[in-house]
């Protein structure tokens, strides 16, 4: 559930970022960065949960 709050934006948002920046670099970063952040956050939350319980 936490990952679904942090994962990448919808494809329309990614397309809009490309249309505004005209850069595949920033479009890729804006698509991949939330996925990586979501994975890292959920990993650490799971580890803390295992330590607590």
UniProtKB/TrEMBL annotation:
Keyword field: Membrane, Transmembrane, Transmembrane helix
Keyword Membrane: yes
Transmembrane segments: 31-52
Name of the protein: Ferrous iron transport protein b
